[in-house]
Amino acid sequence: MSVPSFHDYYPTPGALSDQVILITGAGDGIGRAVALACAKHGATVILLGKTVDKLEAVYDQIEAMSAPQAAIYPMDLEGATPNDFAQMADAIQSNFGVLHGIVHNAAQLPYLSRLKDHEADDWMEVMQVNLNAPFLLTQACLTLLQAADQASVIFTGDSVAVERQPFWGAYGVSKIGVEALADIWAKELARMAIRVNVVDPGPTLTALRKKVFPGESNLDLQRPEQITRAYLWLLSLDSQSIHGERIKIQLGV
């Protein structure tokens, strides 16, 4: 029997109807594209990010498509404390009472560097945004996820975590940690109706990517809008059997 794949998934307009989905880094890049795709397919999206102007722009786009009204939750993950995440969960509880999905997309990648040359402050900031925040946010939202009949948590991975590539500094180590974190969450939540998976988007045209590879041809990169189907699939009930998996997006394969 063949293994289900997002390549075979063609979402209907209402595929995520009545779902409440929280997306970090929702103001730009992959987070923005996933938020718009989720809203288009019927979800109520909670847009979390640090730049209010960008979040408002995504909010306006969702309003223009007559999708369910989105919510904006400004938060700078770099300075967020456990109490900040607890307050966020309380706000979601008060306004929605449930959470059907979380997409962990926000990330920091200041530069490529040898470990011996990496600035300590930058190391701490990257670990906070890329690893600590996804752990704390997921932990704070567990009760909300348990309130859903079926819930899905998606962590965004990277091939550097698998290949252990040098010169990626704190970002590379944080992504190794994220994928380990997702694996442990998946095992610990195996008896609950909360699925946990990792998506490796592959080389994608985002500001984060261009920051470290400014000379890379855009023609060699996939667009964020091209990869949203994998996220929609993992958030939908069509992937109920998928848990503890690592999904690598390879368009055209």
Mean pLDDT across the residues is 91
**Main pleated sheet:** 7 strands, parallel
The radius of gyration computed from the alpha-carbon positions, rounded to a whole number of angstroms, is: 17 Å
CATH C-level = Alpha Beta
Low-confidence blocks of residues: none
Query: Helix and strand succession?
Result: EHEHEHEHHEHHEHHE
> In which order are the strands of the major sheet placed?
3-2-1-4-5-6-7
Beta-sheet strand percentage? 5-15%
Oligomer: single chain
Number of domains: 1
What CATH calls the topology is: Rossmann fold
What do we call the CATH homologous superfamily?
NAD(P)-binding Rossmann-like Domain
* Tally of helical segments: 9
**What is the β-strand count?**
7
- What percent of residues adopt helix (DSSP H or I)? 40-55%
Structural class: alpha/beta
How do you describe this structure in short?
This protein has 253 residues and is α/β, with parallel strands linked by helices. Helices cover 41% and strands 14% of the residues.
